[in-house]
Design goal:
Elements (H helix, E strand, L loop, with lengths): L11 E3 L20 E3 L6 H4 L2 E7 L2 E10 L3 H16 L5 E3 L8 E15 L2 E14 L4 E13 L5 H32 L1
Parallel strand pairs: 1-4, 2-5, 2-6, 3-6
Antiparallel strand pairs: 3-4, 6-7, 7-8
Helix pairs in contact: 2-3
C-alpha cells in the first residue's frame, strides 16, 4: 500500500474577536419589557462554516481551509444580545421567544458578512437588518438596516477575521443606536 507524499492541510478555525460594549453610564431613555431575540438568519453560503470572500461582485469564493469555529449567525446574534444588555433598554434580554411574559421580539438577517476584493483594495463588509416586534400586538415597532466596511490591513485570513470583527461591532453599534433613538422619539410622541 502506497502512502501519499503530499503535505496534509488541516483546517484552521476562527472566532470573532469583538470586545463587549461598555455598560451604560447614563440612564436609558426608556426601559421596555422583556426582549426575546431570535437567532438572526443569513444566506446559506455565509453561515455554512467557511469564511467567504468575493473576488468580484458576481463571484463568491470560500477559504477552503479556514472556517468559523462558531456560526456567524450565532456569534452576531449573541453580540446583539450583549450590546442590548449593556445599554439596559429592556428589563431582560434572552434568546428564543418561547418564554412567558415576552414583551418584544427582535429578529433580523445578516445580509453580508464577507471579504470583498476590489483590485488591490480588500475590505470586510458586514450588513445586518433587524426589526423589533411588539409581542402583544404583533406589530413592527422599529426596523433598520446598518452596515460597515472596514479595510483589511493585514492581508491574511486572520487579518480578514479581525476586520470582519470590527465591521460587525460597528454594524451592531449602529443598529442599537438606531433602536435607542427610535425608543426615545416614541416616548416623546
Amino acid at each position: 500500500m502506497l502512502v501519499g507524499c503530499g503535505k496534509v492541510r488541516y483546517p484552521k478555525s476562527y472566532t470573532l474577536n469583538i470586545p463587549k460594549s461598555p455598560p451604560r453610564t447614563s440612564p436609558p431613555p426608556v426601559v421596555l419589557g422583556p426582549l426575546a431575540i431570535r437567532e438572526f438568519r443569513c444566506p446559506e453560503y455565509l453561515c455554512e462554516g467557511r469564511i467567504v470572500y468575493r473576488p468580484s461582485p458576481q463571484e463568491v469564493g470560500f477559504y477552503e481551509y479556514h472556517r468559523w469555529a462558531m456560526s456567524p449567525r450565532k456569534a452576531i446574534s449573541q453580540l446583539i444580545a450583549d450590546s442590548l444588555r449593556s445599554q439596559s433598554l429592556f428589563v431582560s434580554v434572552v434568546f428564543n421567544e418561547a418564554g412567558v411574559g415576552t414583551a418584544y421580539v427582535l429578529s433580523g438577517n445578516i445580509e453580508r458578512f464577507e471579504e470583498v476584493d476590489e483590485g488591490r483594495d480588500v475590505r470586510a463588509v458586514c450588513s445586518i437588518s433587524a426589526q423589533l416586534i411588539d409581542a402583544r400586538t404583533i406589530s413592527v415597532v422599529w426596523s433598520h438596516t446598518a452596515s460597515a466596511t472596514v479595510p483589511v490591513v493585514k492581508r491574511d485570513v486572520a487579518g480578514v477575521v479581525s476586520s470582519l470583527s470590527a465591521a460587525a461591532r460597528i454594524t451592531v453599534d449602529r443598529l442599537v443606536e438606531s433602536l435607542e433613538k427610535e425608543l426615545a422619539s416614541a416616548r416623546t410622541r
